[in-house]
Specification:
The complex is a heterodimer of chains A (177) and B (341).
Chain A (H helix, E strand, L loop, with lengths): L19 H25 L21 E3 L15 H5 L5 E7 L11 E9 L8 H5 L5 E3 L14 E2 L1 H5 L14
Antiparallel strand pairs in A: 1-4, 2-3, 3-5
Chain B lengths: L11 H33 L15 H10 L11 H19 L7 E4 L2 E4 L8 H22 L3 H32 L4 H6 L11 H14 L24 H25 L17 H22 L5 H31 L1
Antiparallel strand pairs in B: 1-2
Helix pairs in contact in B: 1-8, 1-9, 2-8, 3-4, 3-8, 4-5, 5-7, 5-10, 7-8, 7-10, 8-9
Classes of the chains: A alpha+beta (177), B mainly alpha (341).
Amino acid sequence: MSWSPGEDQITVQRAPEPGAAGGTYRAFGETLRGLKTTFARVVEGVHTIQYPEQKVPVYPRFRGRHKLHRFEDTGLEKCVGCSLCAAACPSDCIRVVAAENTHEHRVSAGERYAAVYEINISRCIFCGYCEVACPFDAITMGHDFEMSDYNRSDLIFTKEMLLAEPIEATPLRNEGE
Amino acid sequence: MILANAGYFEPWWIQIIKSLLIFGVALGILPLIIVYERKLLGRFQGRYGPNRVGPFGLLQPLAEIIKFATKEDSRPVTSIGPLYLAAPVISILTAVAAFALVPFGDVTNIFGTRVGLYGVDPSIGPLYVFAFGAIAFYGLMLGGWASGSKYSFLGAMRAAAQLISYEVSQGLALIGVIITAGSLSLTAIVHGQGGMWYFIPQFVGFLVFTIASFAETNRSPFDLVEADAELVAGYFTEYGGTRMVAFLFAEYLNMMVVSGIAVTLFLGGWLLPFGIHPPTWVDPIIVLAKMMVFISFFIWIRATLPRLRYDQLMSFGWKILLPLATANTLVTAIIVVAVHK
């Protein structure tokens, strides 16, 4: 028993098949249109951003390299070594070793301070959870994104490096710009 | 038996100086054309192209030549030694030999000696070009065959098919010009264009010749010989280092040759329109400028058109170009006979 296509009739509408001459004529016209399109790109100019010399400004909420902060008036570190950032970190790249502040040696405003504060940038995924977890706004995400280096060990940022101002300020653009 | 009158009238030392000069200019311009192509191609795509090496990226080809020259000189074990080595030599030799024909100017007096500003001016001009163009394909085919690789072989096979499908129409396209000028000498053809450049009365011939030139130089949209998406690099897939550079140089040199022939036959050679007669020393610059315009057109086409399929090129060559070129030749012949009767 042979298969029957049923009652439905399918009509396929095709564009007229161009012959050799008609096809060539049409291809020639389309070629000219294509030439116009590409030439318009020359007139339009270049869209390349010459990266190392010319940078795209980042938005204020761009999550770049972390920064540790000090109080502006006293100069004491905001970080109290509570390790909440290390606990929040999904990629486990923050290491905090806390120590007690003394009268002779006062580093932070709280009872304790971070004797060691290291972020392994090669593991960091720049999610910003550390910034959210911090009760004292001691750590925030900065705007720097040029952190590549030749050695893995150079990518472990110490407390001094995180406290220091970036060597070169990343260009910033305003929200909505 | 003399097959062709080469038209030598200069002393031998002038011919040596001339050939060295033309060779030097050609190989000196070549890297500039390569960087020019890449920069212009970049502009067509909204980017700069190479601009890091040297001022405006002009030293880019130099850096690449150093890179290629310092590469390991290797060849596949399946390759056929002597042919594998000979193929790039044939390619570049024929390209340089064909370049000798491009006239950069008329016979001029330089310090009291008559010097023709061209390599040779044989009485068989276009035939000489076609002869070397055909031999150049031996470079491609031997290269593809001797590599012992299937991609190379496919590229070589395509080169052979491409050769026969356009070379006939390219030759026929030139016959119109030759009939109109009544001479096979390229300088005489340029002199014949004093009143009107031949691309106006021979527009169809010019069109056919231009399209066939894209195939001759393996340029997009007819670069299926080295279709990099399917065949890696076609006939020179297995070549590396300086041998590959030789192939690339031959390709760009062929581009210059084809531009030079097109400028000579259709665009008035060293003549300028509107009755402007500059001093003789400007002539080579005019020819080079016209060649650059033609090469820019090559690049423009490359930036625009996608590659044709194998069978599309064949049917286009045989069904469109050949009838068009034949009709052009016939009509030209009839008109010339009717006018000169």
